[in-house]
Amino acid sequence: MIQVKVNQLTIPNKITINGHAESGPYGQDIVCAAVSVLYSQLEQYLSDADVADDGKQVHINVRTLDEGDKRLLTAFTGTVEQLSMQYPKNVTLTSGD
Fold first, then answer.
1. Treating both helix axes as pointing N-terminal to C-terminal, what angle do 67-86 and 30-45 enclose, rounded to 10 degrees?
2. 21 lies in which domain range?
3. Are 84 and 91 contacting, i.e. CB atoms less than 8 angstroms apart?
4. Which keywords fit this entry according to its UniProt record (predicted)?
5. Do 46 and 72 touch, CB atoms closer than 8 A?
6. Burial level of 94, CB count in 10 A (0-12/13-18/19+)?
7. Please, which residues have CB within 8 angstroms of residue 15's CB and are 6 or more apart in sequence?
8. pLDDT tens-digit readout, 36-51
9. Of 24, 54, 60, 78, which has the highest C-beta tally within 10 A?
């Protein structure tokens, strides 16, 4: 199961992603692919963030939060929430510190 944890839209904003969806064979897992695309988008487009990815767990620490970053994080969180509703055995989303 992929576990995504996002704190509120404040600074510092921390996002943690770990696990694997296990909804299909390796390389064919559409749920894992969806979360990976969302993560890649965050990594690429956040204006000021530190990203640590060891292949098993991702930590994103957002240092500044402009209006574009807020929209990007809202879209990320909303889409992960939709995935968690559609695939509750494969994705969870939690928020808080």
1. 170
2. 2-95
3. yes
4. Hydrolase, Protease, Ribosome biogenesis, Thiol protease
5. yes
6. exposed
7. 4, 5, 6, 7, 42, 58, 59, 60, 62, 73, 76
8. 999 999 999 999 999 9
9. 60
Spatial CA neighbour of 23 closest among 70, 94, 97, 86:
86
Quote the CA–CA distance of 75 and 56 in Å, as a whole number.
23
**Model-level pTM?**
0.88
Domains of the chain: total:
1
User: What is the rounded CA–CA span in Å between residue 18 and residue 58?
Assistant: 6
DSSP state, 5? E
**Whole-number Å distance between alpha carbons of 59 and 11:** 15
Q: What is the CATH number of the domain that holds 84?
A: 3.30.70.1490
Q: The tokens of 54 are what?
A: 């060891």
